[in-house]
Write a structure and sequence with these properties.
With 358 residues, the protein is an alpha+beta fold. It contains 9 helices and 20 strands. It folds into 3 domains: 114 residues, Alpha-Beta Complex (Photosynthetic Reaction Center, Chain H, domain 2); 91 residues, Roll (SH3 type barrels), CATH 2.30.30.240; 80 residues, Histidine-containing Protein, Chain: A (2-Layer Sandwich). The protein is 27% helix and 29% strand. An 8-stranded mixed beta sheet has the order 14-15-10-11-12-13-16-17. Strands 1, 2, 3, 4, 5, 6 and 9 form a 7-stranded mixed beta sheet that branches. The chain has a 3-stranded mixed beta sheet with strand order 18-19-20.
């Protein structure tokens, strides 16, 4: 046997193995970052009603600004990450019977593999509304967003358009700053997916300089907006306000324990949102009215709206009494007089805030 050929062959094999190991390590790191409540669906198997393995959740498609999971990126086939194919499954099409690390889809293997899909770039995926709607309908799901030439309302409530869609893995580590441009931290995870509604309840932020796990913060996704270049997120909060958000303990299994919300000086926990269709319809109607009002400040646009048992709570900040009055009028029109709780603070914008407001 020619020694030079043997050496070259061995070197090729070693290089190939090294590449495979690095790829596998990359996949493991991503999965570890997305386990538990970092992103509780990544890594789970997808099986049909007969128990046939269809694939596994490799990543997610997220409309972060609207707090929505658009779909689960379910991969199948290939070897060690090479040659895989991916199908995007709306979260509402999946169900959980309690089997560990497994979700179920009522679809045969051939129909699943022929599902339409849409492309997501590494950075920012275009909305591709029509294509996303096609995927939803293929899996028997009603789109929760407005489509060109489609229905403008759902259950009598106006539908909002899709925002920017990104892979969940590319949202991790995005820097977060406040409205003054002060760096606060970076995205460390996504938390609490409701697979029925497709809603994401929280974004985990790790403050810069944090060296212990107990300093994690969780904010509602609606409080975040991409900057103009879509390479960072802006939080509707002041630096001190961010520091005052209750911290969470993060353990190795990815689960969190809330800090005692009754500590003096600490803001209350996120508002309670009702799951009844009527509550959801009221919240969506108010949110749409707020989005359409171009006279509101950036603070007013990010007002937290929660409806529970027909009762609405508005919490946030506005820069003037007339602006606050408009917000309250939207809530009253949707929920009726006497059903609105006002937690909106009036605080005019500082000169620094005016300079950066865009």
């Amino acid at each position: 046997m020619n020694p030079s050929i043997t050496f070259g062959t061995v070197r090729l094999i070693r290089s190939t193995l090294l590449i495979l190991l690095l790829c596998a390590a990359g996949e493991s790191s991503a999965a570890q970052l997305n386990t538990g409540q970092w992103d509780e669906v990544v890594g789970k198997d997808i099986r049909n009603s007969q128990g046939v393995l269809l694939g596994y959740v490799k990543d997610t498609a997220v409309d972060l600004e609207h707090g929505r999971y658009v779909g689960m990126l379910v991969s199948f086939g290939g070897f060690a990450g090479f040659g895989e194919k991916t199908v995007i499954v709306p979260p509402g099409a999946l169900w959980d019977d309690g089997t560990p690390r497994t979700l179920f889809l009522n679809m045969d293997e051939k129909t699943f593999r022929n599902a339409p899909t849409f492309e997501l770039s590494k950075e920012v995926g275009p909305p591709q509304t029509a294509k996303v709607a096609e995927v939803f309908r293929y899996f028997g799901q009603v789109p929760f967003f407005a489509t060109l030439g489609g229905k403008a309302t759902l259950n009598g409530v106006a539908l909002e358009p899709l925002g920017y869609i990104r892979k969940g893995s590319t949202i991790l580590f995005l820097p977060v700053e406040n409205l003054l441009g002060v760096s606060l931290g970076y995205v460390a995870g996504l938390r609490d997916l409701n697979r029925v509604t497709g809603k994401l309840k929280g974004v985990v932020i790790r403050p810069y300089g944090s060296v212990i796990r107990e300093q994690m913060k969780i904010v509602p996704p609606q409080a975040l907006r991409y900057n103009l270049k879509h390479n960072a997120l802006r939080l509707n909060d002041q630096l001190q306000g961010f520091k005052d958000i209750p911290s969470f303990n993060m353990y190795r299994n990815g689960r969190f324990v809330e800090e005692n919300p009754t500590i003096p000086g600490v803001p209350p926990p996120p508002l309670s949102h009702g799951e009844a269709p009527k509550d959801k319809a009221i919240t969506l109607k108010i949110t749409n009215l707020i989005v359409e009002d171009s006279t509101l400040s950036v603070f007013g646009k990010n007002t937290e709206v929660a409806t529970n048992n027909g009762k609405v709570t508005l919490r946030g900040r506005e820069v003037s009494a007339p602006n606050r009055a408009r917000l309250l009028s939207y809530a009253t029109a949707a929920a009726g007089a006497g059903n609105v709780t006002d937690q909106i603070e009036i605080r005019p914008m500082s000169e620094a805030e005016k300079a950066i407001d865009r």
